[in-house]
Amino acid sequence: MAAAALSLAASGVLVLIGPRIVGIAIDTGLAIDSEQGVARGTVTSVGIACVFLLVAALARGGSMFGQTYLGERISQSVAYDLRNEIYDRLQRLSFAYHDQAQIGDVMSRATQDVEGVRFFVSMGLLRSAYVLVLLAVAATLMLTTHVQLALVALAFVPLVATQSILVSMHLRVVWLHVQQLQGHLGVVLQENLSGQRVVKAFARERHEQKKFDAVAKELYDESFRTSKIQAFNEPALLSLWLVSLAIVFWVGGQEILAGRLTEGQLIEFLLYLTLLQVPVRSVGFIVMMASRARSAGERIFEIIDAESPVTERPGATALTPGSGEVRFEQVSFHYEGLPPGVAPALPTSGGRPRRRTDAAPVLRGVDIVARPGEVVALLGPTGSGKSSIVNLLPRFYDVSEGRVTIDGQDVREVTLDSLRGAIGIVQQDLFLFAATIRENIAYGRPEASDEEVRAAARAAHIHDFIESLPDGYDTWVGERGATLSGGQRQRVAIARTLLLDPRILVLDDSTSSVDMRTEFEIQEALHELMRNRTTFVIAQRLRTVREADQILVLSEGEIVERGRHEELLAAGGFYRQIYDLELRAQEEASLPAAGSGNGAASGASNGSGTGAPDGRSQVTERR
Is the pTM of the predicted complex or chain greater than 0.85? Predict the structure, then answer.
């Protein structure tokens, strides 16, 4: 920074040395005796002036290079730091923030807004400092030459400053709206690209085009509005400079005739004003960049300064190894930062979470004891609080009342890394990164060996399928795992969790939209995953419910029934209603399929998961 400032100051001083040299050269080397009409100057004086001008030009070239190079380096460093600050903050913000944030808008802040700040630091900030240096040095040189003429020449500076401030205030508001529209445009584009299957399935391409065009048109209008303001500002500043130039020429001529100013000094003044023309005209551009950078900075720091309700407490310790006993003790919960009763479901990596619409607390007085190795099945209608329970366990949110403990340790008193490292999560809406299958399986343990990755894949009944691919474990799966079927993605996610080897599991056992063989393999993989682990399951399958050590039936945020499958059926309560409406059909459907179950099992034993009669695997097996 100091080197850039030094280069900038040197550049400003060197550019203004020229007029002083020219003025002296005219008065000493090109002077004419007005009485005798002969030259009083010497060729030597002119030659010396030319040498000084050449040296000053070369020195200025070097200082300008340093100014540009160092300024660009500083601006890139600022952009680098801002991007990392934003990304780091986004990683640390809880789901309470991400539930509300729009992906396209966040991406706009992290890219376009950061670039707006960077551009101002590189161009606007340095130009601002350069203009100030030029004005300061020029004012000093002019005042030492002729005070009255200097005051006349500098009279336009306050007018330029006033004009710039007024335009800046106006542009700031407009630029803030432009950047908000850029974020909105990103949201529309991101949602459209993510939902292309839905758009095409409902033939809504024209509707989506109109929606995008409406936002793009508004962005065009507002962006053009900034250009119109700028188009008015620059001519206004140039007019002020031309008026000042004319006045200086008039007053300077009078002073020469009166014998109080030499011709060289007037030329010197006019050259100063000429050199100041470009910086003065650039003030309008600087104002525009500053306005954009200011509004961009406000949007950036809305993320950086955002507070997360879920943070590590001072003195938090790592979760100590244990058997995996989980307790919910009189837990009540509502979602902070959301309208009363509006709560997201189990966070997913794609799309917007489902939300509750009632005004009641999400959970009320929940007591759960899950002993080591037990399977706890959560059942209930949509919005009953199932997802909220499993969200509290890894501290995606904090309880409002009561506490959650693992092996006697309050989850709020341990570090987030150690807590979440002890909990494996397999969600219904699975997310795979645009990377290789190996990298996706090893995501939670990047240091895992190839043999450990393969062992996890075997346990998840996906190893043989992966081996059948041309590139095996190095196969690229595409964005969100687009080249894999739903069943294949689910088994890769199960392998990823198996490799983590957590003591506690949170999973959704839904296997909708897959064939019977794939469903069988997924259920077998889930069964392997749950073995000897304390497991919380948002249950959708009869097999999971039957094998659960305890079933918790929720309604409106409360546990209304608990027990095992047979006990709750015999009680004839709410669970019986759920069973009759949703689970009985699975039981009846499984009876005629029982005879073919062994065939499915034997066909699945190779773990291919393709369902192809000849055992061939296709990476593009579809849902």
Answer: no
